[in-house]
Design a protein that fits this description.
Layout lengths: L1 H12 L5 H13 L4 H15 L1 H12 L8 H12 L1 H8 L6 H18 L11
Helix pairs in contact: 1-7, 3-4, 5-7
Length: about 130
């Protein structure tokens, strides 16, 4: 499972170098103050709509007893914080996370996430 999660995260992290994705993210972020309804819709949709593939994958792993995720929304944000948000922060300041640091963030981030959400005896399932 660890290898599969790392592979998936590497694919998503690769989007950090897509100029169209970065430009769209920057424009939307800059304009939320002018169009608060965009942010309201995004927030109301929750993790299922904003991150459907991640939500589905985590729910599947929890349903199979591979992870114990009592709060799906928090788990998604935590996973992104460990693995993707450094790229967002660096990008906001006009720099980028190099490939070596990206790989270290992925390796350690996946290990931390999977360790935290490892099932224990009598574990609950995702809510």
């Amino acid at each position: 499972m660890r290898t599969d999660v790392r592979t998936t995260v590497r694919t998503v992290a690769g989007l950090r170098d897509n100029p169209e994705v970065l430009a769209l993210r920057n424009v939307v972020g800059r304009e939320l103050h002018r169009f608060p309804e965009l942010d309201a819709v995004r927030r109301a949709a929750g993790p299922e709509r904003h991150h459907p593939a991640v939500a589905k994958a985590l729910r599947t792993l929890a349903d199979r007893g591979r992870l114990d995720i009592p709060d799906l929304e928090a788990a998604i944000v935590q996973l992104y914080a460990l693995l993707l948000y450094p790229h967002v922060v660096f990008g906001a300041y006009g720099t980028r996370v190099d490939d070596d640091l990206t790989e270290r963030l992925i390796t350690a981030g996946v290990d931390m996430f999977l360790g935290y959400y490892a099932p224990s005896p009598g574990a609950s399932r995702v809510t």
